Amino acid sequence: MPSRNLEEVLKEVRRIQIVARRQVNDLLAGEYLSVFKGRGMEFDAVREYVPGDEIRSIDWNVTARAGVPYVKTFCEERELTVVLAVDVSASGAFGSQRLSKMETAVEVAAVLMFTASKNNDKVGLLFFADDVVKYIPPRKGRGNVLRLIREMLATDPIKAPTDITKALQFLSRVQRRRSVVFVMSDFLGPDCSQALAIANQRHDCVAVTLSDPRESVLPDVGFLTLRDAETDELLELDTRHPKVRALFARAADDRERKLTSSLRRANVDRLDIRTDQPYAQSLQKFFRMRERQR
């Protein structure tokens, strides 16, 4: 996304707020609640031991003070912490549709953040490219969500490769509490399955994969010069030749197979977002899949 002045950013924030809140109200709040709430248990209170209680639940400190056995009681976790880890490398600026991959990511992130906020959850944001760019710790409230949207809109793409592993390693150091982590990227970088698997043991990680149709299918339009947004490397192609288009499509298929295999090895769920398809449908499909898993 190109740099914008403050007035343009605020105008876009208002537009995205309207779009996102409509999606939240019409489609997603109930689904989110059912697939993400109650992912753990939290301490509630202590009470006197009664026959049949688990020995493991005895609170020995309270028992020692009271002189009679007390046990800890737990309830379903009432709130979540949600972190959106967003890839801001330059490849996200590409788009052949109405919105680029990064612009689509902003709208999807806004929907997820407003949904979380509506359920009184904390929301945080992490920007990364080849390293961590910025981290905003999770907080509650609509004002926090609006601030995070402004931050996303005001962040320019960085001409650097994507390193998801570094982002997840950083997150494991700063975010000790179990969280729902949405990793938003086109995943055009080194294999990160090991880092995802490790992060998924502590958190509930979701891979939000962003793609554009022109990354997998070349049109027949004659000579094209393609430039890598992150390295400035140029590639000239004659798209009139079916073999050239077939090789391009085959390379895209290989990337997709490797990504699918990588996420499967990490046991991480995938939310597939394409710039040429309504993301509301992708979100609903994802939530239904999570509901079936539960």
Major β-sheet annotation: 6 strands, mixed
Overall geometry: elongated
Determine Rg (CA atoms, Å): 22 Å
Strand order of the largest sheet: 5-4-3-6-7-10
Low-confidence stretches: none
In DSSP terms (H or I, runs of 4 or more residues), the helix count works out at 8
The number of domains? 2
Order of helices and strands: HEHEEHEEHHEHEEEHEH
| Beta-strand percent range | 15-25%
Strands, helices and their partners?
Blueprint: H1 6-36, E1 41-48, H2 60-66, E2 70-76, E3 81-87, H3 101-118, E4 122-128, E5 132-139, H4 142-154, H5 164-174, E6 180-185, H6 193-202, E7 204-211, E8 223-227, E9 234-238, H7 242-266, E10 269-274, H8 279-293
Parallel strand pairs: 3-4, 3-6, 6-7, 7-10
Antiparallel strand pairs: 1-2, 4-5, 8-9
Helix pairs in contact: 1-3, 1-4, 1-8, 3-4, 5-6, 6-7
Could you walk me through the main structural features you see in this protein, from its secondary elements to its overall organization?
By secondary structure, this protein is an alpha/beta fold. The chain has two domains: 6-37 and 79-293, von Willebrand factor, type A domain (Rossmann fold, 3-Layer(aba) Sandwich), CATH 3.40.50.410; 41-76, no CATH class. The protein is 44% helix and 23% strand. The protein is built from eight helices and ten strands. The strands form three sheets. Strands 5-4-3-6-7-10 form a six-stranded mixed β-sheet, with helices on both faces. It starts with 5 loop residues before the first helix and ends with a helix.
